[in-house]
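R.M. (postdoc): so does anyone remember the format we settled on? I'll just put the structure tokens first.
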């Protein structure tokens, strides 16, 4: 039985990945800073918490990381932890950098130190690309990060590449474009929109306050994207991959789709709040994911409108 350690198991991706690995016969372990106090509500929601071994680990503490790796001896480690909000990173830049960049470096160094044949998946981000001047990004597109979150993710990406080349570690980074699900926290704009649309359709008189709705993103379905993470660690050689649907839509189109799903005109229920605009923002995110299709056999089945529909259906249950 293979053993997998998921750092950040309580989040959206960690929970769906845990479910996938359990279905594949893995013994799954997950970490949080304090496993005794963390509610792990997403694991409970999917009904899998009793099947997962939970460990306390602080990614910014090398000794803590090393102790867990020695105890679990995982075949695969999935690094999905760290501060995950672009908007929040402008308010907490130091915490963002430490939790993502220092945490990733500690994992890499601990794997090197133990000399275990452990494979590492690292969650990079499409935010690393920044403004690509209207061009679709692939694995050869230079990084031009435009937020503290993107800077931290870019640093972690190059740490992974360096350990792979310098020490021969089996370490991969998935450069994932936006991927959503009902497990997204409501501070994420996609879940915020879906939840508000459903509440308004149920009789709420609220107005949904949003920032820049002209931004464009490639939105996919999170349960599909964790399949790509797993596939990267099953390949013979470690490599980095862009994961995306290759379809870009505006946030306005996302809003329109969500409100249409509940029979409402979005323009009657939205207010633009300049206070919600970010100091710098990525206006357009678009991708080419041909490498993942060619080498991993992975391609997205669900696009933005499918994602919104499934999120609305879950919200109304």
């Amino acid at each position: 039985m293979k053993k997998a350690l998921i750092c950040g198991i309580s989040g959206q991706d960690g929970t769906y990945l845990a479910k996938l690995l359990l279905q594949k016969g893995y013994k799954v372990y997950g970490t949080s800073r304090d496993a005794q106090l963390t509610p792990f509500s997403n694991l409970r929601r999917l009904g899998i918490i009793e099947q997962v071994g939970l460990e306390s680990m602080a990614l910014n503490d090398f000794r803590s990381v090393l102790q867990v790796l020695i105890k679990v001896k995982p075949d695969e480690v999935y690094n999905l932890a760290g501060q995950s909000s672009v908007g929040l990173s402008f308010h907490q830049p130091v915490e963002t950098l430490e939790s993502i960049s220092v945490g990733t470096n500690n994992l890499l160094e601990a794997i090197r130190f133990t000399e275990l044949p452990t494979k590492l998946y690292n969650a990079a981000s499409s935010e690393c690309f920044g403004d690509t001047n209207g061009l679709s990004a692939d694995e050869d597109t230079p990084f031009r990060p435009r937020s503290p979150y993107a800077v931290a993710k870019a640093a972690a990406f190059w740490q992974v590449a360096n350990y792979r080349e310098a020490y021969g570690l089996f370490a991969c980074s998935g450069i994932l474009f936006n991927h959503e699900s009902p497990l997204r926290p409501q501070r994420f704009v996609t879940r915020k929109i879906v939840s508000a649309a459903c509440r308004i359709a149920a009789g709420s008189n609220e107005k949904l306050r949003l920032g820049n709705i002209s931004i464009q993103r490639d939105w996919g379905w999170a349960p599909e994207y964790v399949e790509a993470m797993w596939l990267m660690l099953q390949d013979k050689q470690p490599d980095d991959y862009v994961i995306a649907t290759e379809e870009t839509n505006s946030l306005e189109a996302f809003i329109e789709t969500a409100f249409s799903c509940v029979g409402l005109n979005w323009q009657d229920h939205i207010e633009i709040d300049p206070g919600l605009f970010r100091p710098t923002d990525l206006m357009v995110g678009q991708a080419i994911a041909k490498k993942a299709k060619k080498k991993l056999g992975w391609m997205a089945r669900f696009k933005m409108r499918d994602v919104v529909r499934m999120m609305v259906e879950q919200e109304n249950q």
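R.M.: ...and that's the designed sequence above, right after the tokens. Also worth knowing: Residues 3-179+220-243 form a domain with the Rossmann fold fold (CATH 3.40.50.720). Residues 179 and 222 are 5 Å apart (CA to CA).
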